[in-house]
Amino acid sequence: MTSEAVRRVQSGNPWEETFGFARAVAAGDRVVVAGTTAFKGDVLYGEGDPYEQAKVAFATALDAVGEFGLGAESVIRTRVYLAHSRDVDAVGRAHKELFDAVRPVTTLLVVQGFIDSRVLVSVELEAFRGQ
């Protein structure tokens, strides 16, 4: 794949610069979005509320696919990482509100934790931009 076929988008998140990654990468007919939390700059939105954190994280991830002219209807895969299994229902509700009509394949994982202990949810997206 030539470098012209790959486009990267930065969101301004400080971790992108620290670790050397992009928020989203388009390659061929796919756009993939990195793990996204409810942080915007130094502010964590929905602290203590997994539903709100999921909504903010998904909105940020969808903004990233929006940079390529895509929206929720183009999402074919989501991955959801949770700090606590008790949050499954709340995060599932947020996912359903955004993707019920789309029905992407979804993986839900409970992880040991995140870099910042206040983070309850991290999400990844993959979107299709083909015909």
Descriptive overview:
- By secondary structure, this protein is of the alpha+beta class.
- It has a single domain (about 5-130), classed as 60s Ribosomal Protein L30, Chain: A.
- Helices cover about 25% and strands about 30% of the residues.
- It is built from 3 helices and 8 strands.
- The chain has a 6-stranded mixed β-sheet with strand order 1-2-3-8-6-7, covered by helices on one side.
- A hairpin with a 2-residue loop joins strand 2 (about 25) and strand 3 (about 30-35).
- The protein is globular and about 40 Å long.
- It starts with 5 loop residues before the first strand and ends with a strand.
- The mean pLDDT is about 90.
- Pfam families: Ribonuc_L-PSP (PF01042).
- InterPro entries: RutC-like_sf, YjgF/YER057c/UK114.
- This is RidA family protein.
